[in-house]
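Sanity check

After download, print the first record. It should look like this:
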Amino acid sequence: MRWNLPCKICRAMSTTLATLTDAPPKAAGRPAGTSSGKACTTKQSSSRRARRSSAQRSLSRAFETFQTAARSLEKSYGHLQREVLRLRFELEHTSRDLRASLEENARMRTHLARVLEGLPIGVVVTDSEGRILTANPEARRLLEPWAGQVGATAINSIFSELLCGARETPQSRHGEHELSIQPDSASRTIGVSCSVLGQELARSAAEKSVFLLRDTTEEKKQNAQKELIRRRESLAEMAALLAHEIRNPLGSLELFAGLLADATASQPDLRRWTDHMQAGLRLLSATVNNVLQYHSRPEPQLASLNLDRLMRESIEFLRPLARQSGLRIDFYNGLGDLEIPADAHRLQQVFFNLAVNAFRSMAIGGMLAIRIDWEDASSFRAVRIEFEDTGCGIPAEHFARLFDAGFTLTPGNPGLGLAVCKSVIEQHEGSIHVASEPGKGTIFTIVLPRERCER
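Expected structure tokens:
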């Protein structure tokens, strides 16, 4: 950078140079050797030397002043350069921090926008009048069917009412309001909670509110289902308690009914009444045992038992019910006196449930055929037990639910019999299957292992 000298120095140098150059020229044509001329010449020379010496001193002072000024300017210029560099460095550092902050803000805004877009709940931002400003995709999904039904104006008015309630009762902001909508004849429930942004609830033009929306339809259904299950469990516990209370006096009644049957064996008229009594008591006993078995699910007490003898005892137990309904029971044994590991009481309960279902499906004159044989005559590893009736049959669409507790095709029947059968047979490591054709009867097939597998 070039600097101009101060004006004082320039004027001093100009004056000095003018002094040095203002000496008069040598006089021409004067005669040499005259004393007056010499004296005049000497005087002029002295004067010129004096002026020259004074000019030199002035020039020296001017140069010294110039050098001092130049050094001062150079020092100031260096200081100015350092200050400019410092300010430039600070500006660059501040600019870099500002760019980094802006980039971080942009990344944060992008991240928050993605989070808002991906939230599983609806987020709606409204102004002070309840008009919707922003809504994420989930909120749009929840509100669009409703908006098509009632219109956007109605939705804004609802948000405005909720916002007024939040201002008037701040504690309501922590609760959740429920909105019921029916966009396509399918009722849906939306839970809405409100939060007014800012510390003060004073109404202002810049005030904004956030509403959180979530579809509570499934939650309400699940809560209702849980309540139903709880009530059913309570009912089941009560039923099990009643079954325990009924079981003992019921056993005494069965004993007395058996004694009456023996005493009236030779009197057909009285035997008919004892058959009715025994049939009713045994049906009641089966119901009580099914309730206890289904809700307590006790582990089977396995022991080696004669399947033929157990089946014949079960048939004798069932004969009063068969005689009461005008039915017949046929039994075929292809195994002989084979023993299998089983719980006699639980297995007899299965036989009783299958036979009772068969009796209910048949008209007078029907027949229940019970057969036991090998499942595979070549391996002799499992036995097959069949209960075949000549009843009305079971439609195929009911097969999937046939063994579910509570499912029944007979009005007034609790629907626990087949569920208990499946549970008991699976505890014996066996299987139970059904084959039926409407109008041609039903066959229930039980497969039990000949020997229990050791685990």
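If your output differs, re-run the checksum step. Summary of this record's structure: The longest helix spans residues 35-118.
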